[in-house]
Amino acid sequence: MAQKGALMKVGVVGLGYVGLVTAIVLANAGNTVIGVDIDNEKIANLKNRIVNIYEPGLEGAFNQAYDKINFSIDYASLKDTNLIYIIVSTPTKEGKILLDYVFDAIGSIKNSNDTATIVIKSTVVPGTARRVHERTGLEVVSNPEFIKEGNAIYDTIHPDRIIIGASNKKSLDLVENLWSFTKAPIVRTTNENAELIKYASNSFLATKISFINEIANLCEKIPNADIEVVAKGMGLDKRIGPYFLKAGIGYGGSCFLKDTRAFTNFARGLEEKLNIVEAAMKVNNDRINRIINLVKVEVDDKNIVVGVLGIAFKNNTNDMRESQALKLIKRMQEENFRVKAYDPVIKEVKGIEMVHSKEECIKTSNILIIATEWEEFKDIKTKKLIIDARRMLDMSKDNIIAIGVSGYNKKEEIL
Ligand code: NAD
Description:
The protein has helices spanning 17-28, 40-47, 58-65, 100-112, 128-136, 152-157, 169-178, 191-219, 227-235, 256-269, 275-298, 324-334, 358-364, and strands spanning 9-13, 32-36, 69-72, 83-86, 92-93, 96-97, 117-120, 140-142, 162-165, 186-189, 305-309, 338-342, 353-354, 367-370, 385-388, 400-402.
């Protein structure tokens, strides 16, 4: 095995949410990092110390790492590296994973360096690493990522586990050595298992969210029921655990939707239907309709203004990919509601009337919806009606409509 903790020269291809954080953390662990992206503007910004991603702790970590990362759009800069991470996007197209960015990146690497070991951190369907090896002859390691946006720096330094899939000991050793500073448990396995672990994990988490949202729907119909209490009682069981049991407007973001789509499509290709995951996807889709229906019940006049608090797909990030808040706004606009929106870090969104503060949003709207769980929404002061789609507020107040509670807010006091 390579000497534990020995430092390396590492390439990182794709400097988005995951790639940039990975590059920064590896550089701050003492490695020399070459960061490559095809986006000219992004590389020019990074060279000028401008980061367009909002993540707690990112700015400080970036400044610390800056001198140890060489940012470039030129793949030739990777010629002396022996380990190159692929962290480009893997979106879905018509429900199927699109691997073009991965194969483009690997093709470009191969032209400048045909001896490096490739490490795929992008989320890819099982069999992808082996296909890359067969096409290129390069050694390929699978090392999927599990960070949570909004906590990405911490999660990269303190992961719950590190999964490394490869077909030979030397490659497994190389990647294990690179991450040994994290002290996380390491699972060494095949490429296919590593690829599967990523999709199975995300599908399970998505299912957990949809499960609690479905029970939340039921709570709304049962006198004296409240999903918060039910989830707390469930989560104290160690076999269940408290995480991902928060009822809300459903999961969004760059991962769960595309990964469940890609995974179920992949399984169908093997003539296996992932019934549970497909049901979780359906439940998630229906969340927006339920919130819209709630608005319609409360508002029969479409001339009023609906104020939406939160645009990001979750708090502590400026990522709005597949944001449920954004989908909610678009759907309300389609239904001819006038919408104003506010988010603490997202200031401009095409086609949406944004306001500059939560106070302005409250003042200029007739009814409000909390769509993203930003901390600053906890102490909202208004007598206007608020649909609390994230269960953040004290629902004993008359103006709060809380999801997942009997009749929305008609809780009977339990002594
Ligand atoms: P992103 O869209 O933020 O970033 C991808 C970057 O890759 C972009 O900067 C793009 O310009 C660059 N790129 C595309 N093609 C390229 C090429 N041929 N050469 C060089 N650069 C290229 O994506 P992300 O959110 O960082 O996700 C990256 C991968 O990590 C995806 O597979 C995703 O599923 C996975 N992942 C994401 C998260 C997350 O929280 N965002 C968590 C775990 C795993």
